[in-house]
Amino acid sequence: MSKNLVVLLTAINTEYDAVRRRLAGPTPHLHKHGTRFETGLVRHSTCRVALGLTNVGNESAAVIVERAVSEFDPAAVIFVGVAGALWDSARLGDVVFAKHIYNYQGGTSEDAGLMARPRSWEVSHPIFQLGSELARRDEWADPPPPGEDPPRVHIAPIAAGSVVLNSVTSAHARWLRTRFNDALAVEMEGAGVAQAAHLSGSQVAVIRGISDRADGTKGSANDQNWQPRAAANAAAFATHLAVNIIKDKEQLTMADEDSTRPTYHTQVSPTIHNSTVGNITGFVNNGSSYGAVSPNATSTADLIEELDRFSRLLEQHHVAGDLDDATLTGAQLQLDTARKSAQAGTSESKHTVTTALERLRGLVADIADLAAKVVPLIVMAGGLT
Questions:
Q1: In whole angstroms, what is the distance from residue 14 CA to residue 232 CA?
Q2: Range of the domain at 355
Q3: Looking at the structure, do residues 161 and 304 belong to the same domain, yes or no?
Q4: Is residue 48 within 8 Å of 58, Cβ to Cβ?
Q5: What is the C-alpha to C-alpha distance for residues 171 and 70, in angstroms, rounded to an integer?
Q6: Which residues of 134-143 are buried (b: 16+ CB within 10 A; e: fewer)?
Q7: For residues 289 and 95, what is the distance between their CA atoms, to the nearest angstrom?
Q8: Rounded Cα–Cα distance for residues 91 and 93 (Å)
Q9: Both 292 and 208 in a single domain?
């Protein structure tokens, strides 16, 4: 598959549905061992996502992470769900972005009691930096119900074990809050996700919406009300993070390409006096010529004709199995944007055309033939008046 994709995993259907509602055109994808995923684009973006359900527990989550990484080779793995708050600083509906994840149940039983021997995994540094920035911007959340404050993002450790915590007075609850007093939330999958992602060499993040206070109210009417809301808030931040992971990756890729950018050859028509407009005849890279744009393509009509030709080429690669449904949908969306903006004929729309084509190039970057043919289109769009 492609590094221009983010895997989003959840443990229960409420969490899964919260993420799925944020995807455009989700398409089933069946793993050879029967694990079911759906792939699609985060709405209003070019970020591709593979969504999966792990079931409850660290062990199950670790297995599905391993399968997702081997199947999709993603840019990152993000686990999305709900959790119980260990401290009152997190309000119901708030989101916890894990700084690191404890597997808190490791220990040794001594005469003096249970001595903690935990393991912990830090969130990937680039994702932690990006998530912290997005939390500071505070632009990720959906509008809250009237009269309510918007949810906040807390950057803090999360504790993950195999026990459903639903008490503040039990021995287990007191031990957890004493030994892991910096953890803000408790859940049951994050440790398995983090360990499997690290072993697979993948960047990882764990994002949890606070649905209860782990205080005996699980299953109550209040919990049933807050669980979908907390899941929706976690999904909002997680998909916002995923979109920006891909944006960062595309920017780094473009910067790398700029440092080794090939020479583009243009031939200026003698009948055109604007020196910025040329007949794009192709470009040369290491001696090989790629003629994606016809020799006489100099006008908006010519560009639109070339975009239509590229659209047909995308369909051919899709039929051949080179492009999956989600990538084809995203690529055609960018082509439509480029067509409409080119027809507008303004200086602002010219920038929109170029941006859409740059995003198109990112979507098809894994297919050298297609990626090569987008570059002359970008050059041509830049020459339009």
A1: 9
A2: 262-382
A3: no
A4: no
A5: 40
A6: bbeeeebbee
A7: 51
A8: 6
A9: no
Do 22 and 142 belong to one domain?
A: yes
Residues 106 and 42 in one domain: yes
Q: Count of CB atoms within 10 A of residue 114's CB?
A: 14
Mean pLDDT by 10 residues, the chain (385 residues): 82 97 94 94 93 94 95 95 92 96 74 69 91 94 90 95 73 80 92 91 94 74 84 97 92 67 42 34 36 52 88 87 81 87 79 83 81 86 73
306 and 339, same domain (yes or no) = yes
**Using an 8 Å Cβ cutoff, are 83 and 156 in contact?**
no
Q: State whether 268 and 240 are in the same domain.
A: no
Let me know: does 68 contact 217? Beta carbons within 8 Å.
Answer: no
- Burial pattern 221-246, b for ≥16 Cβ within 10 A else e, equals eebeebbbbbbbbbbbbbbbbbbbbb
Q: What's the domain count of the chain?
A: 2
Which tokens hold the place of 270? 């003698």
Nearest to 310 by CA among 367, 260, 238, 348: 367
Runs of H (alpha helix) within the chain: 13-20, 58-72, 125-137, 171-179, 190-199, 221-259, 300-319, 325-344, 347-363, 368-382
Q: Are 80 and 8 in contact (CB under 8 A)?
A: yes
The alpha carbon of residue 270 and the mean position of all alpha carbons in its chain are separated, in whole angstroms, by 48
Of 253, 288, 313, which marks where a domain is finished?
253
Q: Is 42 helix (H, G, I), strand (E, B) or coil?
A: strand
Nearest-angstrom CA–CA distance, 385 and 319: 36
Given 208, 231, 253, the domain boundary residue is 253
CB 11 within 8 A of CB 53: yes
